Amino acid sequence: MDVTLAADDGDAAVGLAPGVGTSITNGQLVIDGEFEGASGGPFSPNKNGEFTLGDTNDTSNDAFSITNNSSNGHDFEVVVENVTNGSITIDIYDGTENLGTATESSNATFNIASGSTVYAAITLVTETDSLTADVTIQTTS
After folding, report:
1. Bridge-partner residues for 114, per DSSP?
2. DSSP run (H or E) holding 119
3. Sign, CA torsion 24/109/57/123
4. pLDDT per residue over 72-97, tens digit each?
5. CA angle, corner 69, sides to 81 and 5, nearest 5?
6. What 3-state class would DSSP assign to 22?
7. How far apart are CA 27 and CA 38, in angstroms?
8. How far apart are CA 85 and CA 105, in angstroms?
9. How many angstroms separate the CA atoms of 110 and 78, rounded?
10. CA angle 102-134-106, nearest 5°?
């Protein structure tokens, strides 16, 4: 099954909305590489660092959100693959509990009821000046 993800598209079956440090470009979620620093100005992650986008205790401060706009509940899976020069952890939460954690060694699987939204926080651990990975968000039912 192929699902097109669209930002702010009420007609999409799966709504993907960007949050802190992310954007949607050509239908894909992109980690921009510039984040707001403590002084309010932008900063870029450096090598040998750890950066967290979003807060699992605050749904208004997420890295991105996923909304199930279909008329049925669906099971979803977040898969992290092909990570180079560091690690990526994606925590999925609903505002009250962690629904799953995706890393290169384990996938996050969870259900989103019709009309409901879940949120994500992303932790990046960098080893060099270039961290890459493939992240897939897919329905499994």
Report:
1. none
2. strand 117-126
3. negative
4. 999 999 999 999 999 999 999 998 99
5. 40
6. strand
7. 30
8. 15
9. 9
10. 25
| pLDDT tens per residue, range 4-62 | 444 455 447 788 888 888 887 877 788 765 555 555 555 566 788 888 888 888 899 99
Integer-rounded Cα radius of gyration of the chain: 15
Q: CB atoms < 10 A from the CB of 19, how many?
A: 21
Contact between 89 and 122 (Cβ < 8 Å): yes
Q: Which residue is listed with tokens 């952890």? A: 89
Q: How far, in Å, are 16, 57, 132, 133, 138 from residue 84 at the CA level?
A: 25, 29, 5, 7, 22
Cβ atoms of residues 70 and 23 within 8 Å = no
Strand 86-93 to 50-53 pairing: unpaired
Dihedral of CA atoms 17, 23, 24, 26 in degrees, nearest 10, equals 180
Q: What is the largest CA-CA distance in the chain?
A: 44
User: How many beta carbons lie within 10 A of that of residue 7, not counting itself?
Assistant: 15
